[in-house]
Predict the structure.
Amino acid sequence: MSSDVPVLELRGLEKYFNTSSGLLDTVKNRITRKSPTFVQAVDGVNMQLWENQVQGVIGESGCGKTTLLRTLIGLYKPTNGQLLFHGDPVSEFTKEEWKEFRRHVQIVFQDPFNSLDPKFSVRRTVAEPLEIHGIAYDIGQIKEMLESVGLTPAEKYLGRFPNQLSGGEKQRVAIARGLITKPDVILADEPASMLDVSTQAEILNLLNKLTDEFGVSMVYISHDLSTVSYICDKINVMYLGRVVEEAPTKQLLTEPKHPYTQALIQSIPIPDPHYERERAAVGGEPGDPINMPAGCRFKNRCPERMDVCDQTPMDVALSDDTNRTVACHLYYDHSTEKTEQAQ
Amino acid sequence: MKVRAGMMRWWCKMSDPILEFNNVDIEYQTRGDNAVHAVNDATFTIDEHDYFGLVGESGCGKSTIADAIVGGLDDNGEISSGTIRYKGTEIQNYSESQFNKEIRWKEISVIPQSSMNSLDPVMKLSQQAVEIAKYHTDLSKAEAIDRLRELFDVVGLSESRIHDYPHQFSGGMQQRAIIAFSLFLQPSLIIADEPTTALDVIMQDQILDHINSLKEEWEISMLMITHDISVVFENCDTMAVMHGGQIAEAGNVVDLFDRPRHPYAILLQNAFPDVRYPDRELAVIEGHPPQLREKPDFCTFADRCPWSIAECYEGAPDPQSVEGDEDHQAWCIRANEMDELAADHLTKPAEGRSILEDIQ
Ligand SMILES: Nc1ncnc2c1ncn2[C@@H]1O[C@H](COP(=O)(O)OP(=O)(O)OP(=O)(O)O)[C@@H](O)[C@H]1O
Ligand SMILES: Nc1ncnc2c1ncn2[C@@H]1O[C@H](COP(=O)(O)OP(=O)(O)OP(=O)(O)O)[C@@H](O)[C@H]1O
Ligand code: SF4
Ligand SMILES: [Mg+2]
Ligand SMILES: [Mg+2]
């Protein structure tokens, strides 16, 4: 596999959900000639995931991170745009090619309370992907995997069912299940959100080892900015279905550019009861992906809002740094550039 | 605006306990004859109007404690000894119907750790509110829906979505809906098990800010379980740190921060990432807690503890008051030597420049 094309690439991805749920709504809409209401969950995202790269995705709850990930693994059909795997569009995959894809690309779902089958023991849960793909295995492998995510001794857990595990233990079973087939690409949706620091560090070290030693690539969704820096090379900040800032991790944390990113960093709690943290200045309602504002989607909450923000900001590369882009009117000269972004 | 932890302390001193745990043991039976002794000799007190934080490693018994309070342990679990008092009354032997009639929702409401899972998938959220109202209040259908609207506003959800089904909400939106439901009957004690894990930090900040304002407006007390010690330091008055089914240390948050005396609490604080200093290493506390097939008659941290001695294995440690303060207890036989033994760990490192100074 050549490495001059990204492992996974998204071009202009859009994913909308129709919320007129029932038949009744549909009929009503037809009679009243109202167009159905759409949730614009992901709206024009471009992303390239290269071999051995770890990209972080952070952003508001409900901004479309999970939808993005589910589309990346082919669980949702994009409304518009393209998904390429090693340069080949997945929309043209045959059944065999899908199976191959599924073997190489594994997902760790956001909520282990929902994603683990309650009728499956830990042992069966972790072994299932191997069985689906017809990969031979022995119990030693399963135990080793469980212990590497800190479920030690593995015997203690093998026969348990999900309801007999704590939240963080479920989460680690979900990670073990995702890693057992040795995938090349891992899509992890807040995989360590319930874990204490030390256990989290153990998992992050394991994931780091996979990417460093085995060339694994990963998309890592997290709300925890104080730990993403330990794993991600690069971070994408999403707001209401769009990526609003993209930068190498360290730079994003030390010099956030987009007002939303700045607010995020100011909102991280500090482990010191003597420290008086200023709360971020963004107030108001979080974004509503149904009634999207025109122009910059953050404008109603933005402390820097200007008149020009009623127009959609372009993704601009920062002049001093080609590695990062930001979609905000503060960062480009409007006399020389067009303000409407080509979609 | 910032509510500083510990600020309410002078006032709390005068109030009565709302919840008391006295030497509580909780066990689960599993297949074969293997019991899991999930919680052992747990003793702590939450005072009225206090926000109490419970932190500790994954699997140390936090949710088990939460479930036990409202009679919600799994079928294979039981409180095998000790007492739990709510407003002075022993409740650990209450029957299911007593819990329903006297405790759940009205007195104590729970935001479960699996909150995203606890919404009924086939019912619109507005219908779910009507159901709660029907069983526990005299509110009419319209009033129940109005109330849900108000509470949606409180947790930052758009009122226009009260008629949605749970699957139409993102993870964090579902978690906020659950928080709204937990406030529905204005309870005296809220047990919040990882209430903000699924939320982005801005939303977390706004919700905690709101939860904090409830303290005064609604006279609420809270048991907040979280893996994020910063959330406890910023929002709680008192706290306990657990390790391996035992309470390791308990007291006022400021005292625990300034003078941690249980080795696990000390190492935990050292390991905690601080976004102000992103160059610091993320530390692992080596080892794992022991399997508890029987009630431990030793300190469960002993195998991992840099300062353990033979006596640590000769009995579960009794609590020691830290520097004579009865309200600050550490369950470690060497607690009063820790300021010397752990001196290296207790001096906070002289830090470089905080990244936050540049952002303002
Ligand atoms: N099946 C669906 N039908 C309708 N709307 C949906 C569906 N799935 C997601 N949405 C909506 O799409 C938007 C994005 O949801 P998504 O789950 O991707 O958010 P997220 O960024 O993962 O949030 P969180 O951090 O809370 O998990 C939300 O407004 C959500 O309500
Ligand atoms: N129904 C059950 N049967 C057997 N063991 C159980 C059961 N429920 C929990 N346990 C075990 O009891 C211990 C305590 O679990 P608990 O859910 O209280 O942990 P926790 O502190 O909430 O952890 P987390 O932070 O990961 O949610 C764990 O080791 C868990 O495996
Ligand atoms: S009792 Fe012993 S083993 Fe336990 S924490 Fe104290 S010193 Fe360490
Ligand atoms: Mg999500
Ligand atoms: Mg738990």
User: Anything to note?
Assistant: The longest strand of chain A covers residues 38-49. Chain A has one domain: 8-22+36-270+277-283. Chain A touches chain B through 75 residues (CB under 8 Å).
